Amino acid sequence: MVFFKKEDVKEEKISQANEVKIVPKELENTNKSKVKSLSLLDAGTMEYVIKNFPIVSEDIKDGLLNLSDILEKTIDYIEDRSSEIVKENRNFKLSQVYRDTSIEIYKMVNNIQDYILWMDEEYKKNNYKNEEKKTEEIEEDELQKDVDSKNNISNSQEIVIFSDFTGKEPEAFIFRDDIVKVDDWNDLLVKTAEVLTKKYKHNKNSNKVVGTFDIINIKSNENEFRDTAIEMLNEYKISLDQFKVIVK
Q: What is the reported pLDDT for 164?
């Protein structure tokens, strides 16, 4: 009968506990084949979801962000364990396995973050298309309003916005294809702002260049309102000769 020292038995148990189990390559491949690829979010399917079900697609995006956060915390945990193993047991081999695992998880995090960036681009494209559709609907609605307004406005004088409006009161304004009735100068400013923000908001950040016009500078309350309207048109890069006021 062979007797072992207590210290020998203890060392053997530690060695067994720290032993890295090697899975045969054939068995490893078999197990992996049973696991579906983690490319769960097919781009074509997700593109359709973003377009048609934007609310739930945001939930999916939030879920991916949470998963990315969990994986990053997992990396931190594994790195800490790797350091502990080296300090406590001097097991560099197992420590390296842990670090390799961290690297693979880090790749997963990068893939998820790239996917989230792609989703953001799809949101932008989809929102732009929706904005275009809304703009078309607004244009059709405004066109009908223009027709109605045209039928109700009398044959009054049309004056370009950079003219002198001293002593004149607006009845409507003509802007490109828009004809909008107004009650007074205040109403003209409000309705001009509505048209610009609804139909021409993309102009503000464009590189469009408009011509300059000589503005008649005569001090009057009416011309102060006119100057405010001109400031708005310049902000949205609208040529002043395209905006006319129908005066009573």
A: 95
